[in-house]
Design a protein that fits this description.
The protein is mainly beta. Among the domains are: about 45-145, no CATH class; about 475-705, Jelly Rolls, CATH 2.60.120. Helices cover about 0% and strands about 30% of the residues. It contains 1 helix and 35 strands. The chain has one helix at about 495-500, and strands at about 25, 35, 45-50, 55-60, 70, 75-80, 85-90, 100-105, 110-115, 120-125, 130-135, 140-145, 275-280, 285-295, 300-305, 420-425, 425-435, 440-445, 475-480, 485, 500-510, 515-520, 525-530, 535-540, 560-570, 580-585, 605-610, 620-625, 630, 635-640, 645-650, 655-660, 665-670, 680-685, 695-705. Strands 20, 21, 24, 26, 27, 28, 29, 30 and 34 form a 9-stranded mixed β-sheet that branches. Strands 19, 22, 23, 25, 31, 32, 33 and 35 form an 8-stranded antiparallel β-sheet that branches. β16 (about 420-425) and β17 form a beta hairpin. It is rod-shaped and about 150 Å long.
Length: about 700
């Protein structure tokens, strides 16, 4: 065979070399032959390079030094063996490798960065990919290839890719298909990296991926999508599919500042219980923050966490404007619905606020500036409009315990006949009138056939008691018992007892005496029985002509209201074997039947008797009710305790119904009393054994509507 030709500067000859089948040739300074096979394919001598996690340099005209390899073959197997993204493979000067034609196979898991002798990046060969490096003496070029088809893996382009394809049927203009055959490797279907290398930028916009869709003016349908995401689970499994993932470092994940009105819409699927959810955490362990529901009939946004709006507004307007337009005949609507649900862990010491509003003013604000934590307005004229509506279950409607002196102010409008009122339905209990020259606070309301007059008292405060009195439309009598009650027979005109006795009330009862009616040390009079069983000491209005108006009569049709502050068994006395009675009866007879139940056709009074006189219970106050000769007594369930003060009220409305109150609480109500029943007030005590019993009457009041 002929002498094998030599390479020139490590490169192939300019002339075509014919190699007969079955023969081969060697490179100059080569160590392995290049031989031909019978099927006339050529196998080129190869080299293996381990870059060892460092930059590696190729040489052609000199011996290889550290981290260098002299090119002796046409095919290189290179392993970056890198701890990072890849390693640099530096080529000789272009003039030294003219007409280079070199295949490089990346056998590692990292990239190989092809650099010229500057060094400057020329191209990249991805993991487990093959690249072709060529040189024309002035320019070094890299083309990455996979198999025999024009498919590219980890293609790095220093210019741009221009795809101009006319699609006339269904399909994709550019179809990139990545096939994974690895149990745990991280795979990038399309990896776009824009890196600013040297020159500092002073402006402009760098865009990693720019998508521009241009429709035709004559389009009549169809949808243009910039990006379309679809996921196929492949029959299930435990994989997590995420449309987009953003790493740290972004100023914004989406910039919609150039969109016009109506162009930045997010369209959700209809009738879905969870159409869109904002979550916090890592995949597999997340917490919902905001959930959007598009279910038919229930479209809502559920917020789980803190809603924080930080917005600097320089002009007038609402920082957060939430509006609900109602177009339904009877549906209930919530413009803003805040629900705090305590799920699992028990709260031992904390404050949970449904809505918390904090206002901070600037020190330089003008004194006329108003900061309002909550403002309610309405322009509606139909229906019932309420600024606040409080449901059941609260311990307090308003908690003002944290305020300072002078801060618990209700500011109401000036010059109004009804600036504010406290009412139940049509019944006004308290009205504030601010008219110029006529400002007043009105207790109750003008009398009418249906209006209910309130009973106003000060529980626990002995010095204040209004007895539910409206001085503007009721005739009122109130007795403080500044003088003791006497037996009628002890009142001698012109004598000392005439000046000492109470002009409105007298003492009556079995073995009753004037001496047993005494002043109580802390106010009022104490009524004490004598020592025999069934002895009584009772007070009622005088029956002496022209002595007092307390005897009425007080007719149910006049809507009388009676009140008495009474203490049971003062001092060391007990309530055992005792009978107490106070209220309104038609007569107060002498004798043992004086405080019994069935003595009048109509009566309404409070009774207590341990012998079951009023009801089977012997421990509680009883609302003693008798109408037309029929008793209908009610156990109030309020126990009678020795030495206890009770505020007893009986209020008869325009229909004749009597309501019983103990210490401000409604405890019983009657049917309608007989309109013409002549009632008189009284209070008395009876002992059921041979031992003294007593009650103290602090004050008594009665009123009726004016004719």
């Amino acid at each position: 065979m002929p002498t094998p030709p030599n390479l020139r500067n490590g490169l192939g000859l300019d002339t075509l070399v014919m190699i007969p089948s079955g023969f081969g040739f060697t490179y100059k300074d080569g160590t392995a032959p290049l031989w031909g096979t019978l099927d006339r394919t050529i196998r080129v001598m190869d080299q293996t390079i381990d870059m060892a996690d460092a930059t590696h340099t190729l040489v052609v005209n000199t011996a290889a030094g550290a981290s260098q390899t002299r090119i002796t073959g046409g095919f290189l197997y290179v392993d970056p063996n890198s701890s990072g993204a890849g390693e640099n493979l530096v080529f000789p000067a272009e003039a030294d490798i003219n007409e280079l034609f070199l295949f490089i196979r990346n056998t590692g898991d990292e990239r190989i960065f092809i650099q010229n002798d500057t060094p400057a990046l020329v191209g990249t060969i991805g993991p487990h990919s093959t690249g072709l490096v060529t040189c024309n003496g002035t320019t070094l070029s890299v083309a990455q290839m996979a198999g025999t088809s024009p498919a590219f893996t980890n293609l790095l382009v220093s210019g741009y890719i221009d795809q101009d394809e006319a699609l006339t049927g269904a399909g994709f203009g550019y179809d990139m298909d990545v096939t994974i055959n690895h149990a745990s490797a991280n795979v990038l279907g399309l990896d776009l990296a824009v890196t600013q290398l040297s020159t500092d930028r002073t402006g402009g916009t760098v865009t990693g991926t720019n998508i521009a869709l241009t429709g035709l003016a004559g389009d009549s349908g169809g949808t243009y999508r910039g990006i379309n995401f679809s996921a196929t689970t492949g029959g299930g499994g435990l994989n997590t599919f995420v449309g987009m993932t953003f790493s740290a470092g972004w100023n914004a994940i989406m910039d919609l500042s150039s969109a016009a009105t109506g162009e930045a819409d997010i369209i959700l699927k209809d009738n879905v219980a969870n159409a869109l959810t904002f979550q916090v955490g890592v995949l597999g362990t997340v917490t919902d923050l905001l959930t959007l529901v598009t279910s038919t009939g229930l479209r809502e946004a559920t917020l789980a966490g803190l809603f924080n709006q930080d917005y600097a507004r320089g002009t007038a307007g609402a920082l957060l404007d939430s509006r609900l337009t109602v177009s339904h005949a009877d549906a209930s609507m919530d413009v803003a619905y805040f629900a705090n649900v305590h799920d699992t862990a028990r709260i031992n010491a904390a404050i949970v606020n449904g809505v918390r509003i904090s206002l901070d003013s600037d020190g330089g604000d003008a004194g006329t500036v108003e900061y309002t934590a909550f403002k309610a307005e309405t322009d509606g004229t139909q229906g019932f409009h309420a600024a606040f509506k409080v449901g059941g279950g609260f311990d307090a409607f308003a908690d003002l315990r944290a305020i300072s002196t002078g801060e618990g102010v209700f500011a109401i409008k000036d010059n109004l006949a009804d600036a504010m009122n406290v009412s139940q339905g049509a019944n006004k209990y308290l009205t504030f009138k601010t008219t110029t020259g006529g400002a007043e606070i009105i207790l109750g309301q003008a009398p009418s056939a249906t209006a209910v007059q309130p009973i106003i008292s000060a529980p626990g405060v002995g010095a204040v008691s209004f007895a539910g009195i409206d001085f503007g439309n009721r005739y009122v009598l109130e007795e403080q018992f500044s003088k003791r009650a006497y037996l009628t027979g002890d009142v001698i005109p012109g004598a000392a007892t005439d000046l000492m006795c109470n002009a409105d009330f007298e003492v009556i009862g079995t073995n009753a005496t004037s001496a047993l009616c005494t002043f109580a040390a802390d106010g009022g009079i104490t009524l004490t029985t004598a020592g025999a069983a069934d002895d009584q000491e009772t007070i009622k209005p005088h029956t002496i002509a022209d002595m007092t108006n307390w005897g009425g009569p007080w007719l149910p049709s006049q809507r009388p209201r009676w009140k008495c502050n009474l203490q049971t068994s003062p001092g060391a006395l007990t309530v055992a074997s005792a009978r107490f009675a106070a209220g309104l009866k038609m007569s107060i007879p002498a004798g043992v039947t004086q405080l019994q139940d069935a003595t009048d056709a109509d009566q309404v009074f409070f009774g207590y008797s341990t012998d079951g006189q009023y009801t089977a219970s012997s421990a509680n106050w009883v609302a003693c009710i008798r109408i037309g000769g029929a008793s209908a007594n009610v156990d109030t369930t309020i126990p009678v305790v020795a030495g206890t003060n009770y505020k007893l009220v009986i209020d008869i409305d325009a229909t004749g119904v009597a309501r019983f109150y103990i210490n401000g609480a409604l405890v019983a109500a009657s049917a309608a009393l007989t309109a013409g029943a002549a009632l008189i007030p009284f209070a008395g005590v009876q002992t059921l054994v041979a031992a003294a019993k007593a009650i103290t009457v602090r004050r008594m009041a009665i009123s009726r509507v004016l004719a």
